[in-house]
Amino acid sequence: MSSPSDFRWYTLQTLSNNESKVKRLLDKAIKDEEMGDFVAEILMPVKTVKDFRNGKKRESEMKLYPSYLFVRARLFDDEGTLLEAPWSFLRKTDGVIGLIGGQNPVALKAEEINTILQQVADAADKVVPKISFNIGERVKITDGPFANLAGNIDKIDADRGKLEVSVDIFGRSTPVELEFWQVERDDRE
Question: Where do the structural domains in the chain lie, given as residue ranges?
């Protein structure tokens, strides 16, 4: 059984779109203010997504839990009393709204943090398309030899980021394999 003074995972709520800034500030402040005895790790779960913008393929990070960070910290002493220094340190960081549980921070259960850590591990070496499509949806091809043709999605391979789209070529429906970034939704339906 763990004692109250052990390092546990807590959820830190941030202002919208401030997760990266808060993580950067906390990581720097842990070293500068010597809070390493109380705060061991700041986790911002992300996955890499690719999309196509202005004719260029690009990759970016997408947060798995927008407005939340996970902090492995020691917030209580052996008697279960909240330690003011690490609690205030986390709360007073610019961009932080607070810890889940407020004055009585609630630690994540083992299965909760294990699920989050597994999501991070699963996303580590994968790049996934930012846009999701549905079978039967009408799309316009924006790149490649079939550019400007429209068709319906027959198959989706999300792991490979590929679609099979049926387009009319020479009066017959022909399946064409395309990458997600080579099409856009056809709003002229």
Answer: 8-129, 138-185
